[in-house]
Amino acid sequence: MTPDKIVLAYSGGLDTSVILKWLAEEYQCPIIAYAADVGQQEDWEAIRKKGMATGAEKVIISDLKEEFVRDYIFPAFRANAIYEGSYLLGTSLARPIIGKEQVRIAMEEGANSVSHGATGKGNDQVRFELAYLALNPKLQIIAPWRIWDLNSRKKLVAFAKEYNIPIPTTKKNPYSSDENLLHISFEGGILEDPWNEPEEDMFKLSVSPENAPDKPTYFEMDFDAGNPVSIDGERMEPVELFTRLNKLGGDNGIGRLDMVENRFVGMKSRGVYETPGGTILREAHRDLETITLDREVLRIRDSLVPEYSRLIYNGFWFSPEFEMLQKTMDECQKTVNGTVRMKLYKGNCIAVGRKSDNSLYSEAHATFEEDEVYNQADAAGFIRLNSLRLQIQAMNRQPEGRG
Q: pLDDT exceeding 70 applies to what percent of the chain?
């Protein structure tokens, strides 16, 4: 299929600016530059002007912040999503909403092709393209990094100079980073050697734990059906609430992560992340669940978290298996209502109090003092029945002829 109009996921950086011009030259058709606002700090008017100057027929900037928090971040945190025990999926969660909006724009603008700036080595190519294919498989996908010969920064810069594409003259940033309301990630540069410690001036959303205040910060967060709804009694919309959490976390050195993860394509990759608000939200949510979820519901739900998180990481947000898991996760959130009191101190995020009208915690049963609701003698039979199989195994191991 010959492209007649292409919608490009555009950031205004070197890579996608070169891709914009390259697509126009290669396919000789109109290019729509689409930028998604998912909470990153950008000069959107400058991006619009640069896109038009680089050859776009139209530049569309979509404000997706509210939808991103409400329909992507909150559902994932209702499920306590976490990849390989550490990563809170900041980039992974942003890709499906960006891809969904790109498909919508392509259909609205009558474009038959979509393009992105992800490389052939990473996860993002998979996440974008799985979204395209799940939502409109008729669209042609153009991934320049897999087909062109501009395979180095030197070649990209040379191409940009040839076509008078502005190259940022700010302080050199050796890192590849991705920012949204949930997090900012850093890869590349000195981080490619997993032995190197990240430089302090790299971080953007948080102070170092060493430089955080010497006095702890306390606050309370209210939940309704697993979603945060207010801080210190002040009810807020999702973006406002999450922005507040990011500020609280960043000011107290919360949410830094340095890990080597397994990419879907097969290689290991070292990434450094800042997720201040998400770190607080997950800790508070999990703590509230300890008093509001039945033990067996919690056990089964937790067994599903690794698979749920793997699906997000690998790009299967729009798959039937993910839809099934999300419904399962949400079903057990009906009773996750209440308040958690949090303590933030020099990188530590600690739940120090929790209460709920749906609480299953019974002080009368749990007390170490005298009570009238629990017969401790019942425990003897409970233990003997639970040890029956162990007793039988022990008897079978005894040598013949010995009692």
A: 98
pLDDT for 365:
75
Best CATH choice for the domain 6-65+88-170 from the list 3.30.950.30, 3.40.50.620, 3.40.50.720, 3.40.50.1460? 3.40.50.620
CA-to-CA dists, residue 105 to 36, 71, 99, 136, angstroms: 11, 19, 10, 12
Q: Where in the chain is the domain with CATH 3.90.1260.10?
A: 177-293+332-355
The overall pTM is greater than 0.90: yes
- Calpha distance 335→339 (Å, rounded): 12
Residues 191-211 have pLDDT tens digits of: 999 999 999 999 999 999 999
Instruction: Give the burial string for 349-369 (b: 16+ CB within 10 Å, else e).
Output: bebeebebeebeeeeeeeeee
Bridge partners of 62?
36
CA–chain centroid gap for 227, Å, is: 16
Contact (CB, 8 A) for 52 and 59: yes
Fold (topology level) of 177-293+332-355: Argininosuccinate synthetase, chain A, domain 2 (3.90.1260)
Tell me the two tokens of residue 64: 């997706």
**pLDDT tens figures, 82-102:** 999 999 999 999 999 999 999
Beta strands in 310-391 (DSSP E): 338-345, 348-355
Q: Phi and psi at residue 37, in whole multiples of 5°? A: -90, 100
Name the amino acid, one letter, at 165. I
Q: Which sequence positions are flagged as catalytic?
A: 15, 95, 124, 176
pLDDT tens, position by position, 160-183: 999 999 876 445 667 888 999 999
Please, which residues have CB within 8 angstroms of residue 330's CB and are 6 or more apart in sequence? 75, 78, 225, 226
Residue 262 vs residues 96, 158, 313: alpha-carbon distances, Å: 20, 33, 10
In the chain, list all ranges with CATH 3.40.50.620. Answer: 6-65+88-170
